[in-house]
Design brief:
Elements (H helix, E strand, L loop, with lengths): L2 H9 L8 H20 L7 H10 L2 H8 L8 H14 L1 H6 L1
Length: 96
């Protein structure tokens, strides 16, 4: 999700499903989803291609921006995703 979308969720009233916790939960779930291919042996052959596609979709940049919405307990999930993307995709090494 883009920064403005997460900010909108965070600013949305808590009683209507928004707030800081809602933004943190959504962000964490999205990052966990992007981590799935790196945690499943089934995807080992495709990891480099998956990393390249995620890099093209600016996932590293979006993940860095999302760090401000994630709770402190879950920051390691985002950092793990960033490191896996950087180390698995040749195109991401330029970013690093």
């Amino acid at each position: 999700m883009r920064d403005n979308q997460l900010l909108s969720i965070q600013e949305w009233p808590v009683y209507a499903g928004g707030g800081q916790q809602a933004a943190a939960t959504i962000t964490t779930q999205i990052i966990k989803t992007f981590n799935i291919p790196f945690n499943q042996a089934y995807y080992d052959k495709e990891v480099e291609q998956i990393s390249a596609e995620l890099a093209k979709a600016e996932i590293i940049y979006l993940t860095l921006n999302a760090l401000k919405y994630i709770s402190k307990e879950n920051i390691s999930i985002a950092v793990t995703l960033i490191s896996r993307l950087v180390f698995n995709a040749e195109s991401s090494k330029t970013f690093a």
